[in-house]
Amino acid sequence: MSAHTVSKLRKGEKGVIKSFSDQAMSLKLLEMGCLPGCEVRLDAIAPFGDPICINVGGCYSLSLRLNEASVIELE
C-alpha cells in the first residue's frame, strides 16, 4: 500500500502532515513551514496538473511541484 501524500489529494481535500519520505527535500519543506502536525488543504491545480497550490495551517498558500508534494506523507 502506498503512502497517502499531498500529491494525491483532490481539490478541497485536507490532511495533516505526518512525515517526509525524502531527507534532502524535508529540510526545504520544513523551512517553508510544512511541519509535522500541520494541516494542509489542496486549493488549486495548474491546468496540466503541475504545480499545485496548498494552504498551510490556514495561514498562507504555497505552490509545490508534484515531486515535492509526493514527499509529504499525511496521517
Shape: globular
- Radius of gyration of CA atoms, rounded to a whole number: 11 Å
**Count of distinct strands:** 5
Count of helical stretches: 2
How many domain modules? 1
Largest sheet: 5 strands, antiparallel
Oligomeric description of these chains:
single chain
Catalogue the unreliable spans: none
What is the structural class? alpha+beta
- Strand percent estimate: 35-45%
CATH topology: SH3 type barrels
Mean pLDDT: 92
User: Strand order within the widest sheet?
Assistant: 4-3-2-1-5
Helix amount: 10-25%
CATH architecture: Roll
Order of helices and strands: EHEEEHE
**First-to-last CA distance:** 14 Å
The CATH superfamily title: Ferrous iron transport protein A (FeoA)
Per CATH, the class reads Mainly Beta
Considering the chains and any ligands shown, give keywords for the structure.
Transcriptional_repressor_C, SH3 type barrels, 2 helices, FeoA_core_dom, five-stranded antiparallel beta sheet, FeoA, globular, iron, 75 residues, transition metal ion binding, alpha+beta
Describe the model:
- Strand 3 (52-56) and strand 4 form a beta hairpin.
- This protein has helices spanning 23-31, 66-69, and strands at 14-20, 39-45, 52-56, 60-64, 72-74.
- The longest helix is centred in the middle third of the chain and has 9 residues, at 23-31.
- With 75 residues, it is of the alpha+beta class.
- The protein has one domain: SH3 type barrels.
- The protein starts with 13 loop residues before the first strand and ends with a strand.
- The protein has a 5-stranded antiparallel β-sheet with strand order 4-3-2-1-5.
- The protein has 2 helices and 5 strands.
